[in-house]
Each structure stands twice: as C-alpha cells, then as structure tokens.
Design brief:
Shape of chain B: elongated
Structural class of chain A: mainly alpha
Number of domains of chain A: 2
Number of helices of chain B: 8
Order of helices and strands of chain A: HHHHHEEHHHH
Number of strands of chain B: 0
Number of domains of chain B: 2
Radius of gyration of chain B: 18 Å
Radius of gyration of chain A: 26 Å
Strand content of chain B: under 5%
Distance between the termini of chain B: 51 Å
Number of helices of chain A: 9
CATH class of the largest domain in chain B: Mainly Alpha
Oligomer: heterodimer
Largest sheet of chain A: 2 strands, antiparallel
Structural class of chain B: mainly alpha
Largest sheet of chain B: none
Chain lengths: ~240, ~180
Amino acid sequence: MNHPEWQDALDAYVSGELDTTARESLLLHLKGCTSCREEADTLARIVNDAGALPRSLEPPSHLWWRIAEALREGPQAEPRVPRVRTPSSRFRFALAAAALVAVFGVAVLIAPRGHDATTGTTANAPGSENQPDVVVISDNAKPQPSDWARLIWTLEEESLSAEKAVFTGLAGIDAEALARASVVEPALDALDIAINETVDAMRLEPQNPGLARALTGYYERKLELLRVAARLASGTWA
Amino acid sequence: MASGRTSVPELEEKELLTGLRSGDERALEGLYRLHAGRVYALGLRLTADPSRAEEIVQDVFLQVWRRIGSFEGRSRFSTWLYRLAVNRSLDTIRGGRREWQEPEAPERAAPDHGLEMTMDLERAITALPEGARVVFVLHDVEGYRHEEIGAFCGIAPGTSKAQLFRARRLLRARLGRRHP
C-alpha cells in the first residue's frame, strides 16, 4: 500500500460509511491508483463475504435438553458446566482413538454392553459404581420424559467424559497409526447422524421405548468403533 | 416440553411470547427452535470456542425464561435476544481470557457454493486477535454500528473503527490468495 493516508477512507468506503464528498474524492483517487483500487476490491470482498456468512449455525442437538434440565432444577439453578464436545474433526477423533491405546478401557464406561434392554431395569457400567446409572427402558414400562431426558443426558455425558479422558491421556502418535484408525470415520459419521436423528425423534415421540433402545444401541456401536479404532492404531487388529 | 399437541414451530412468535410470560416451557422451546441457531453462531464466532458457545446459548435462554418480564416489547424480541447474546458472549470473553486457547474453525453447514471460501473466512476470523475478532463479527457479520459496538464493549466508537481496520487488514493478509 503506497497511500496510507487513504486507508481510513477505504475502510469507510467498503463499509458504506463515507459521505458523498469524501466518497467522490476517494473514487477520483482510485481511478489513478492501482494499488489502492486493488486494496479497495480486496476489502470489499472480505466485507461482502463476511456479510454472506450464515447467520445461523445449528447448535448441538443435546443443547435444548440441558436447558430443559436446568429449568426443572429451579429458577435459581446455575447453568450446567458445558461438556466437552465431540471433536468436530475426524482427524482429531483419530488422534483420540489412537490415544485409547495408552488408556484403553476408559471408553468401557460408555453404555456398557450386556445390559438387558428388555427388563426395564437400571444398570451400572461395570467397574464404575460411582458412575451415573444408565436408564434402560423396556416396552412394558413406558418412559416418562424425565427418563428419556436422563437417558440422553447420561449417554452423552459418559461418552464425552470418556473422550475428555482420552484427550487428557493423549501422547505422541505417528501418522501411520492415525491413518489406520481413521478408516472407521465413515461409520462414525453415520452413527453420529443416527444419534442426532434419534434424539430429535425422542423429542417428538417421548413415549416410544424403541427410540430409547435405539439410542443406547447407537452409543454401544460407537463405543465398539472406538475400540476398533484403538486396536487399528495399535496394530493389534489384523 | 415437546409433549404437547400443538406443533411448536407453527406458533407465531407473538403467541410464543404470550406463552412464555405465562410460564409455558413449550413456548421457550419454540423460541429456542427459532433463534438458537443465531445465538449459537454469534457465540461461536465471538468466542471461537464451541463449548463456550453452548454455554452462552444455555445461559441466554435461561435468562429469557427468567427475565421475559423485563422485555417490554418496544423493540423486536430478536433484537432484545441477540443483545442478551452479545452481552453474554462478551462477559464470557472478559471472564475467560486466561483460558483462551487456539481457536478452531466452527463446524457448520455452509451453502454449496463458495464452501471453501466460507470455511477459509471462518477459520481466519477465529484466528483474529480477540478485540479485532469481536468488532469484525459484530460489524461486518452481524451488522452492528460502531456506536452500538462501543456501547457493548465499553470502548469508544473510534476504537471500534480501529479494531475493524486492523481485523480487515489481518484477514486480507491471511486470505491473500483467495482475496487478491
């Protein structure tokens, strides 16, 4: 930029905040100054692109349930501590999955396999007596809103806690291990979609026990994929 | 909650506000469905932190629940709501500076065209210094004026202009290839 004295005017110009006289002066200058003209074009593109960004971004599907839970806790309830979100990048996920090799077993706390989804009983994750209960809903016992909200909360809470623990234990992982672990990405993507859609469906059909079982099943499969990814990363999976 | 027979999205915002004033939780959910995306986007871009953005959305809608009585209807509800969101986001930023971490690009659904450009711009925005990022998002993305930004942030309008100037130049340097 060869004309710093025009910089403020350029900024106001691309913002549409330049008065008529100043605007005419600037335009006159731009006619004869290639560098300032390029600067104006670039700034205008940035401003236009920024203005075209989506005003709305879809928040995580679980977020409303956290708010609803806080409402039930009473008007003085403090907001819940935000949870660690599922990594937005599968590359990061692969890092986390590979790190499971070092802390293998952590993810076992997520929706343990083997609990009976037909008995209507409440089960604890094995070896985790202090962990929140996993609410298992049967056909015979129709779930109440507090049940399925709690189910969603519990599954997500434990899943994300496990991922947080994984990240805490993250160590140096080579690129080859990452590549091996990342082959499960498409399946994980599909499961994430299924989980989100099931949560939405549970909101619309809170009395549907099949949805609750489906959600638990999706989380179990996600856990299994985490295990597979960990084995792939460690080279213990043929 | 969503267990009622009335389809929440079909209710007009005015009806939702009436319901909210009478303590109907479904009305809050309806307003959440209408506006949470915008609040989340605002929080995410201002803080460059998805976890904080979630916290902001939660806090803002709890504030709406508790403080709807203070909304007198002189402005649009969305205007009032987004101001709550901006203030809450700025509180988060002020309170969490020591915990600031390297930002990551927000995850979102972008239009098919210009996806790469959009993602580049989102990433570049999150990488801006905090003050420049806040002013850029509020001015160039959200459309607030410098006077309003100054009031939000407790800075002079001239300072807001200076931060915007800085933000745009940093973005230009960062996006040079795509914005020659």
